[in-house]
Amino acid sequence: MKPLILTTALAALATAKDHRSFAVLRFTNKQLTKGRMDPIRSPGKTGAHVHHVLGGSGFGTSSTGKDLLESNCSTAKVKGDNSNYWFPSLYFRDAGTGKLEGVDLFYANAYYFFEATNDDIKAFPTGLSIVSGDVDATSAPVGGSVSNLDASKGPINAVKWTCPRRDNLYNPPSWPAGSDGSMAGIGDAVNKGEGVGFPHVDCDGFASPLRADIHFPSCYDPAVGLTDYKRNMVFPSDAGDGKMDCPKGHIHVPHLFLEVYWDTPAFKDRWEQGKGKQPFVLSNGDATGFSLHADFMAGWDEKVLQHVIDTCDAGTAGMDKCPGLPLGLNEADCTVEPAVKEKVDGVLDALPGDNGMKGWSYGGTRLVSGTDAPAASSGYSSGFGSESRTTSSGLVSGTEAPVTPSGPSSGFNSESPATSSGTPSASASEYPPPANSEPSPSRKPTRYQLPVKELVSASTSPSSSAVGYHVPSRAASSRHYTNSTMAGPTASHPIGSAITIPATSEACITKTVTVRQTVTVTNRAPPSAVTSRAPPSAVTNRPSTNSTVNGYRYTGCFRDSPSRILNGVIRADVGAVSNANCVDHCRAAGYGLAGTEYGGQCYCGSRLLTSDRLDDGRCDMACEGDAADICGGSWALSVYGRGNATEAKMQRHLYDHVRRRRSLYR
Length: 666
Known about the structure:
Pfam families: DUF1996, WSC
Strand content: 15-25%
Region (Disordered): 374-489, 524-547
Domain WSC: 551-643
Oligomer: single chain
Protein name: WSC domain protein
Number of domains: 2
Number of helices: 5
Largest sheet: 7 strands, antiparallel
Strand order of the largest sheet: 1-7-18-12-9-11-10
Distance between the termini: 60 Å
Mean pLDDT: 73
Structural class: mainly beta
Helix content: under 10%
Number of strands: 33
Low-confidence stretches: 1-16, 362-482, 487-538, 645-666
């Protein structure tokens, strides 16, 4: 019976893309490497700024699609994806010392959207290089905070920041009320959890810290070529029948969307929130967040990706749940040493690459790398004061670019299905209305729920972490703008005004297309776990050294690290996490140790890679799946071991002893 059901489902998907399908690609560990490497923008050279890199081990300063196909391993969970995904690293600047500290990557997901279309969606050709976002932007986009992937409705705005908040409450707002982008970021008037530029509060949503959101265009022009990243891609257009089609001569490839979570709560007690200032800076020196961007180089086994495109609608259950994956899954960690040998983590005096600070502290658009920076303007600032830094050469780089700020406007339709608070109660299986239920322009769209049984997936259990997904809306407009994910117009041009682009500019080729607008909805945490910290009265089963869970004894609360002290299985997919189902999962996978963290994450391993035990009070977050129990804390792991606690301690002691002895001879 199963083969018949599967065949019927696959046939329905393969006949036509009448409805959008998607699958979320997850990664086996947090990053492949980190450093100043960018084979798309700076091939064969040291990159301008530090990137976090995910994907295949063939990555390097000069890597090509062929190199990626020859990767020995990949951080992508689906075997056959040796592509690379990279984005600027994030740093925290201590206002007291002026020093910089790297912010850990919490985790990242890559959404693969397969639009409803009259086109055939094809796998990425090997070596296709795509860049989304403007690395040089220091002003708000001309469209303000409005999400837009439709050039007929206004300027393309493909990158945003999302700031989930505890209990989905946005008072005070995450971005200063009334901000026009000249001295602070701009919050989305419809979806309160989104905006452009950095927010000025801690993003403390359930298992959801500050998140970078980057959409990539999905129409490839083979006449331009694989590597001409400034001109080879555009977004698809509305075909008039609710489907999204590419221009003639283009190849329709998957619509890639990256969501990148940063562990900003680790710094929440070190800066004053809600005052229009914020302490984070991108690795290129941008203190505004407007220059958020990401790069992608295709290294897929094209047969594997085409199989996913044609047969899978696994949604948030994950691409690894797609049926019949030809090559199976990657389970092991995959890392490579950075090609550029320099310190990029820990406490730094300056950003790697001599990238001077730029942004709100200097009037909104001025790039300052010298010592002649003017005093910070009154109003909002990034919290960097008027300090600046001289480059290693002693030269001052950058020029002043006066800006006439312009805030968000209703110059084009920004209607979306989000509620006024932007945080509706939603399940992980909520989708936008299909084309045949599209609302008229006179009323707002309504939501409907897609039954979980309609997902083509080996498993429909939800992810153990809160996952944001992206709801399209389509609203007609007669305006047409440059369809570019590169250097678009900034807030120095009033919204709706004519923008003159030199005809000789290769980076700005005007193409009239229409695509869809998106808004981001962040799922609510389960009612039993919407507060991250568990009040003492709510915990009835706080673990002790004498407690056991399904035969595993509680070993203690241990400090976790970016490389994970339990790394056999990272963030196991067990549904709503509890100590019991985490232990059961790890036992079934053959691991003697299980650990829970952040109230909603499960890890397995055979040994602890460090033995830094914390006070049990540091593990203080209620379990997502059992509010009466404790599942770790912030970078704190509640650990359970098979056998007795002494055995686990001996394993840790032996490992640490051997590690220390080896370090003496390096």
